[in-house]
Amino acid sequence: MIDGIDLTTLAIPFYVLFMALELLSLRFFPDPGEQGYTVKDTATSLSMGIGSIVCNLAWGLVTVAAVAGTHALAPWRIGSSAASWIVIFAAYDFCYYWEHRANHRIRILWASHVVHHSSRHYNLSTALRQTWTGVGSTVFILPLAVAGFPAYMIFATGSLNLLYQFWIHTERIGKMWRPVELVMNTPSHHRVHHGSNQGYLDKNYGGVFIVFDRLFRSFEPEGEPVEFGLTKNIGTYNPLRVAVHEYAAIARDVRGAGSWRDKAGYVLRGPGWSPAARTAQARTGMARA
């Protein structure tokens, strides 16, 4: 965001242009191993993108206020120099890495983020399949305000980070030059992140850079063909159901839980957690002991 203008909103015509180019490339240079586009899936992705802009307006204002207020209380200030822009660009991606990792490891956050993973296709329209309940990101960018970066730098960097991630949602680009693959997030790395293959789950969280995944041992190179989507696909193109289905599942699990500990587990532990799984792990540990 610069001077109140969201860069990602300004980029909408370019999103449309590049999706059209991707469609043309699929039409004239087809690859039987690629999923391509379907009308229903693409319509759902675009609907989720439009809905995200509308539904997150109020939360965006809260985030702006929180970041600006935190910066006002910070004991120091960082000015807008070339060096500070470079630092915040890397620091923002570091914060994004931990936000993204938390989105996959804490179920109530996953309930929001799962929207982005709900398509069984992988193309540029998938990048626009965004949550309508993006309430989990604010806390992860507040350290940047505490460090002294002003709100406009933080939001501008966030927009640039998100813009970068648009182009990596494609099957059209294979593995890139090795030094690029070593440092940057690429279509190959991000395809792994969207895979439901067992070996690809919870891998490659980076936004712009892949170095944090390498550093914190969440990196996985692309090997076997990627199966896109969820481990349990939802089987709907209804945008409302796509937006809230995991919240509904959490509510059902919490209602059926037998203790407050289990209720909290369904909300705060990872997707797929259950008391039965906890018991099985405990028994395995006792057997090993």
Automatic annotation (TrEMBL):
<feature type="transmembrane region" description="Helical">
    <location>
        <begin position="12"/>
        <end position="29"/>
    </location>
</feature>
<keyword id="KW-1133">Transmembrane helix</keyword>
<dbReference type="Pfam" id="PF04116">
    <property type="entry name" value="FA_hydroxylase"/>
</dbReference>
<dbReference type="InterPro" id="IPR051689">
    <property type="entry name" value="Sterol_desaturase/TMEM195"/>
</dbReference>
<feature type="transmembrane region" description="Helical">
    <location>
        <begin position="50"/>
        <end position="72"/>
    </location>
</feature>
<keyword id="KW-0812">Transmembrane</keyword>
<feature type="transmembrane region" description="Helical">
    <location>
        <begin position="127"/>
        <end position="145"/>
    </location>
</feature>
<feature type="domain" description="Fatty acid hydroxylase">
    <location>
        <begin position="85"/>
        <end position="217"/>
    </location>
</feature>
<feature type="transmembrane region" description="Helical">
    <location>
        <begin position="78"/>
        <end position="98"/>
    </location>
</feature>
<keyword id="KW-0472">Membrane</keyword>
<dbReference type="InterPro" id="IPR006694">
    <property type="entry name" value="Fatty_acid_hydroxylase"/>
</dbReference>
<keyword id="KW-0560">Oxidoreductase</keyword>
<protein>
    <submittedName>
        <fullName>Sterol desaturase family protein</fullName>
    </submittedName>
</protein>
<keyword id="KW-0443">Lipid metabolism</keyword>
